[in-house]
Amino acid sequence: MIVKQLDDLLGTEAEVRGAAFESRRILLAADGLGYSLHDTVVKPGSVQELEYRNHVESNYCIAGSGTVENVATGEVFDLRPGTLYTLDRHERHIIRAGDEGLRFVCIFTPALTGREVHDENGSYGLPD
Question: What family is this protein classified in (predicted)?
């Protein structure tokens, strides 16, 4: 059984900060589950264009509001608590956070190691 507390991860290497987000990486590849689980906060008013070419990502909104846009189709979806979106086809997408920001529970497969950083395309490299 794995038991972790978010408070214990804050301020450690498991908490990754970018210009527009904070990702608390709760479960990682080293946990041996085949997926990683993250508590991600998107900063108010921020805009991020991302494309996870090597991972499938699911995001479940638990707080805040904003939108996610599928770049290829131009479709825009509202994000609010209770909304899930999954990038099952590695879609290039744009996240726009509202005035209060967004908070997600995110799952990546394959699992992230915790050392990844977004490249120039908004993607993470191939898993080790």
Answer: Belongs to the ectoine synthase family.
